[in-house]
Amino acid sequence: MKFLIYTVILLTILAVNPLAVSATLPPAYEGRGLYVSYCQLCHGISGKGDGPLAKAMKITPANLTTTVRSRSDAILIKIITGKGRQTITGRDRHNLLSDAMPEWKDIFNESQLMSLIAYLRFLGNTKHDLMGDPKAGLQIYQKYCQVCHGVEGDGDGIMTKLMGIMPMDHTNKNETSRLNNNDLVKSILDGKGRFMPAWRGILSQSDVEALVSYIRLLSH
Ligand code: HEC
Ligand code: HEC
After folding, report:
1. CATH of domain 27-125
2. Would you identify the CATH topology of the domain 134-218?
3. Each residue of 86-133: pLDDT tens digit?
4. Which ranges carry the Cytochrome c domain (predicted)?
């Protein structure tokens, strides 16, 4: 009997566990969460190496928006985890970095590492900065947008077949990056074509800015 009760409790916990949902979240979105907790103190929120701790450091934290472009995933994993990194006289053998960059051994699992790298790639590639809080953006997106734009943001929502419409695929970088942040804000507030609704009056300016940031991360 006790066993049965415990099983039911366990199943209930599993059923409401938000981790189950996070499996479909965009990697760069997940990566940003980790980056904010572990990296921005030195590298800065924009990745330019200007975090609050940077001034106090002898060796300046790298400007990740330029350096990571030329690094493979394998090298980035080495740099972040420190695994396989060999420092000789204070610098590693590829002369990439000193021990001023902490070693995050066993802190991140493989999928977290790939998410972090996805966010570093976003920082290195994007032409458009994040303008609002993507966490708030995710919640508003799930509430108002995914019926048409899809759970994954690829334009494949439950309403699309019903209405015979083709919402923008927000996971396609080529489609979203040709629009600047203000274009996106305007389309969301005022609508687009016959079937993209106008959200002015329903969503605030900061809601829309949060949405734009979430949409940017969806394509990385
Ligand atoms: C305590 C400050 C500090 C923290 C926290 C920190 N870093 Fe660094 N990081 C540095 C410094 C300093 C360097 C430059 C080292 C050098 O040039 O010798 C660096 C270099 C790097 C580089 C190499 C850049 C390149 O390509 O040449 C990467 C990648 C990097 N950090 C990623 C991260 C990530 C990801 C996190 C979070 C998980 C993080 N760092 C957290 C200080 C920090
Ligand atoms: C009723 C279905 C529907 C809903 C709900 C919906 N959209 Fe759309 N959306 C569309 C369609 C259809 C298009 C393509 C419009 C066109 O290009 O004619 C579109 C296009 C867009 C575009 C591209 C605009 C441009 O300038 O090309 C953005 C950005 C967008 N939607 C964001 C959102 C956001 C954010 C939400 C939630 C607040 C949302 N949409 C909710 C149907 C929808």
Report:
1. 1.10.760.10
2. Cytochrome Bc1 Complex; Chain D, domain 2 (1.10.760)
3. 666 666 666 667 778 899 999 999 999 999 999 999 999 999 999 999
4. 26-124, 132-219
